[in-house]
Amino acid sequence: MNIPNHLAVFGATSEIAWETCKHFAEQGAHLYLCARKEDDLQRLADDLLTRGARSVAFCPFDATEEKSIDLACSKILNEFPRCDGLYIAHGFLPPNEDNAIDLNIYRTTMQINYFSVVQILEKFIPHFIKLKYGKIAVISSVAGERGKKRNAAYSAAKAALTTFLSGLRQKTKNTNIQVITLKPGTVITPMTANLPQNFLFTRAEKAGRLIYDSFKKKNENVYIPGFWRYIMLITRIIPEKIFKHLNL
After folding, report:
1. pLDDT tens digits, one per residue of 57-67
2. Exposure string (b/e) for 77-86, b if CB count within 10 Å is 16 or more?
3. In the prediction, which pLDDT does 149 show?
4. Do the beta carbons of residue 200 and residue 185 sit within 8 Å?
5. Which of 103, 184, 89 is closest to 138 using CA atoms?
């Protein structure tokens, strides 16, 4: 399946999504962008047009509001009927929670990182089935592969998302729809600005390029960068009685 030429992007103004969209623009793609702030969307649209995008449309949406998500999806599918790709890049990393459990934070984290994505996919899957093809790439996280005390809410939401996308691949196995789960490690973005950086951090430019490259390939579980596959393999096999004592 070829790389999408008409791509809808949710969370388009995030650092990683912007870096990914630059590559699509350079290839002359048509883009439809969604994010919270209309002013930021306008600046991004202007930038991508100068980089070679054939067309750029946009609409604001709020991942915490079901009505807003529905309106954005309906607008895209009505105005962008040749949409053959979907890239979902929005997310929310709550503050370091340590031993606290804040139900409001958990609800917000789950809504933005999981429920909003499911709601978007519910709208787009019938479109791709009717179109008889489509590529879907969703940013999950390596955090979804093992819970940690400082971001248990985020880990839980991303674990739910990764599991849902695995199930979605089974649901669409007899269609020409590819579902790609993107699992970045720690990426240097405003969302991670408060975290202490180390050699495992990746620049957003590199993450965006690797995600763009994933649209060209058949891999359905993609670690960003690839070395996280081996880090998480080791992390997953640590027995729980040992892992719970680690200060990760």
Report:
1. 999 999 999 99
2. beebeebbbb
3. 84
4. yes
5. 89
At residue 199, the pLDDT reads 64
Torsion angles phi and psi, residue 82, rounded to 5: -90, 10
Two structure tokens written together for 109: 């984290």
List of the chain residues with pLDDT < 70: 1, 189-199, 248
50: left (phi over 0), alpha (psi -120 to 50) or beta: alpha
DSSP assignment letter at 150: G
Distance from C-alpha of 208 to C-alpha of 23, rounded to nearest angstrom: 8
58 — phi, psi (to 5°)?
Answer: -155, 160
pLDDT (0 to 100) of residue 194:
66
Residue pair 30/84 in contact by the 8 Å Cβ criterion: no
Check residue 202 and give its pLDDT.
86
Determine if the peptide bond prior to 225 is cis (ω within 30°): yes
**Domains of the chain, CATH where assigned:** 6-243 (3.40.50.720)
Q: Tokens 């929670």 belong to which residue? A: 97
Nearest to 90 by CA among 29, 45, 157: 157
Radius of gyration of the chain (CA): 18
